[in-house]
Amino acid sequence: MLPFRFLRRLTVALAAAGSACAYGFSGGGLPSHVRTVAVIPFSNETASPEITREVTDAMREGLSKRLGLRDASEEKASAIARGTIVRYEMDVPVAYSADRQQATATRRKLQIVVDIEIFDQVLGKTIWQKKGIIGEGEYSERFEAEGRKQAISRIVNEVVEGAQSQW
Questions:
Q1: C-alpha–C-alpha distance, residues 167 and 165, integer Å
Q2: Residues 6+ apart with CB under 8 A from 47
Q3: By C-alpha distance, which of 51, 26, 11 is closest to 2?
Q4: In the chain, N or C terminus with fewer CB closer than 10 Å?
Q5: What is the DSSP letter of 76?
Q6: Residue 146 — very low, low, confident or very high, per pLDDT cuts 50/70/90?
Q7: Helices (H) and strands (E) in the chain, counts
């Protein structure tokens, strides 16, 4: 039978080794020198001007909170996130009312397509980029903003996950 002290030390050592493995690999996240980001207002190729601010603000918040980056001006940032809103389609019917007398859609879908790049200003190279990121959202009639928020959130998730998986 092993002494209690030995088992306790072994348990502590294994726990320390396990936590070192969780954080010790250089396989996730951004380079260590990237601590600040400037999110440049996205170019907008759609007919919806309000979407530029919404996508840019959501991207700024997502990169800050989920990647731990501080917001900075373009001149001082170690990385820049920039992109283009390529497409914004709304009012795609998803579900219809069962009332035969009034055929109206009760659920609608919208789709936002974005191209994005995260550029490392310190090393002068692209950290991550992807074209054609599609975010979709569903909403009830007259609640388009709700669907837009869902779609933008999905785009931010894909960008954050993509940036984390590159290093």
A1: 6
A2: 88
A3: 11
A4: N
A5: T
A6: very high
A7: 3, 6
Tell me the pairing of strands 43-44 and 79-96.
parallel
Measured CA to CA in angstroms, residue 147 lies from 1, 27, 57 at distances of: 62, 34, 16
**φ and ψ at residue 76, rounded to 5 degrees:** -100, -15
3-state secondary structure of 113: strand
Whether the model clears a pTM of 0.85, i.e. scores above it, the answer is no
Look at residue 13 and give its three-state secondary structure: helix
Q: Which two tokens stand for residue 128?
A: 């991550």
Q: Which two tokens stand for residue 125?
A: 């190279």
Q: What pLDDT is stored for residue 105 in this prediction?
A: 56
- The residue type of 85 is I
What is the distance between the alpha carbons of residues 164 and 167, in angstroms, rounded to a whole number?
7
The amino acid present at 77, given as its one-letter code, is A
Domain positions in the chain are 33-164
Q: Which two tokens stand for residue 76?
A: 């001082």
Asked if residues 39 and 63 have their Cβ atoms less than 8 Å apart, the reply is yes
